[in-house]
Predict the structure.
Amino acid sequence: MKDYSYEFIRNVALIGHSGEGKTSVAEAMMFEAKTTTRLGKVDDGTSTMDYDDEEIRRKISISMAFGYAIHKNNKINIMDVPGFFDFEGDMIAALSATDSAIIVTQASGSLTVGTERAIDVCSEMKVPALLFVNGVEKENADFFATIDAISANYPSVIPIEAPIMKGGKMVGYVDILSATAYDLTKKKIDMPADLEGKVSQIKDKLMEMVAESDEELTLKFFDGEEFTPEEIRRGFLVAIDNGAFIPAIAGNATPPVGIVNLLDRIVDLLPNPEQIHEYKGTKDGAAVELKVDPSKPFVAQVFKSVVDPYAGKMNIFKVIQGKVSSGDTVWNATQGKPERIGTIYVVCGKKQESVASLSAGDIGAFSKLANTFTNDTLCDQSAKITVDPIKFPSPVISLAVTAPKDEEKVIQQLIKMQDEDPTFKVEKNIETGDVLVSGLGEAQLDIMCRKVKNKIGLDSATRAPRIPYHETINGVASAEGKHKKQNGGAGQFGDVFIKFEPGAADGYYEFVDAIVGGAVPNNFIPAVDKGLREAIQHGVLAGYPVYNLKCTLYDGKYHPVDSKEIAFVTAARLSFQEALPKANPCFLEPIYKVAITVPTEFQGTILADVTSQRRGQIMDSLTTGKKTTITVEAPFAELYRYATDLRSMTQGKGRFTMEFVRYDVVPQMYNKGIIEDAKKRAEEDAARKANQ
Ligand SMILES: Nc1nc2c(ncn2[C@@H]2O[C@H](COP(=O)(O)OP(=O)(O)OP(=O)(O)O)[C@@H](O)[C@H]2O)c(=O)[nH]1
Ligand SMILES: [Mg+2]
């Protein structure tokens, strides 16, 4: 394949609600443009884009896939993005790299949550979009009802075409601006009478929008002059670029109808990579702005990494400046290391085609780069530019991962998979020993485990994470701890009196030496401190670490021969174990601050759930437009599955962020459950260890 110049490149990301036909539209585009010789189908597992085992099994996309269509001498790079909410990281990656989005929605007469989200994210990230109303040949499909449902919330969505339907088949379309009807071969036909009124109404809207795009056109509009096709294109581009206009067209993916028209519109209407996209970065510590520019030194950003079973790791990149050729040595500015580029690929599903070079604006893949990861900048040695990293959503759900066999190997594989999905994280919780997998939803975490199975044949599963409880005391108690072993041979003797009370200077542990008159000799005092430091690792309630404990050693006894360090270490522990149960011990639990944003109609449901089901305290509530953000503080124990629960309470419309704020006392009524749980877990651990 030749090296395309940016004027002849269009980068499009297919985004939208799950199951509305993004992959099918991508397949249809590639089939119509003859990239593929057979129309790939999601339903029978022949899709070029949904090629992963898990995608075939579930019949949904779970990872962004790449393809292209050569149309009218233009190369359209296609990114097929999964619609399922758990994979939103891919949508963010795609929208960061692309120059426009095709939002695919079904012609079902409604505005789906995923369409709403897609439009909102395009607007936030300033990505121009075109709406493709898919499946117009499906039973009960209704193009105009769909447009009405969407434009009621998003007036920027305006059709530029209307499908002409006959007996459930799309036989042509009306180009609204020229008020001309065409058949599917683009031959002019008579305008269907039933569309006339609608077409003229929408045409007026479109003209007004073109008029508003710049002053010269506004004047022309008021003078009653017609716009030239070039002016209309200019006006459209301005409006599309600033998000004021999302043109809508209709078609059908299976069988492909109106897809050539979609390809035409992409080439004619959507911006090329040079026209709009600006990147922010740093050079020598100073902020810089970059635009797609072939004349400048090479700069590319890796926005996705995939592991191909045959080709190994592939870094998908977009060239922002200059050009890259195979054999080049480039600089990874993020890692501060050089990389030698072997073969450069253009990706189409699971296939790769090698190319000699790629230029600014284009998208391709490098394989087998040892030190390059998602979000890295690769550049010419002289450029030393780092493009600002893509801001991926932070994980909102954490579950523990377990494996019946070879757990370490499973974890290593999961760690490797982090680079493929930057919203997925693996880390060990030191306090509980759990290996936690975090992400955007339970399905994502389960799919990761499933992928491990597909890759290395080992089973794994997720379960509720252990809560890293702490223990502390509310009361004061003193106790003697005496360790005496004096029957035959060298003896051991240590005897201490320690007072335990809440309130350590550092919030964790404080040791006070209040010995007078050498009751415990100076050289054994550190042993008492050591014994206590060891003891507080395991509290007396359920073995959780003890916090906020002040320990005052105020008396003791020693033996001139048998007193040894170890004896005082043990004596200190005995004193701790004796005193703490009498000092009103209690559990502390992690409290998180959660900011929940929902459409305001869900506010009542959310508040009721947080206060009655999650022991939450409402801190703040703020309504902006149609959305309300509620800030609450609640224990982690009630929150770790909130991502799933919030989604089901709000039909997927709610989102939230959470951050740790402090530890707080657990109400006594929950103690029994925590203690029983700890016992059960200890037994499970022992059984698992025996199994490994
Ligand atoms: N009848 C009909 N079915 C379609 C059409 N487009 C897609 N479908 C079907 O809709 C289902 C979902 O299609 P996909 O292409 O996988 O949808 P998607 O948007 O990629 O879904 P995710 O990847 O899960 O977000 C499949 O069963 C397709 O065959 C269409 O134009 N007409
Ligand atoms: Mg798909």
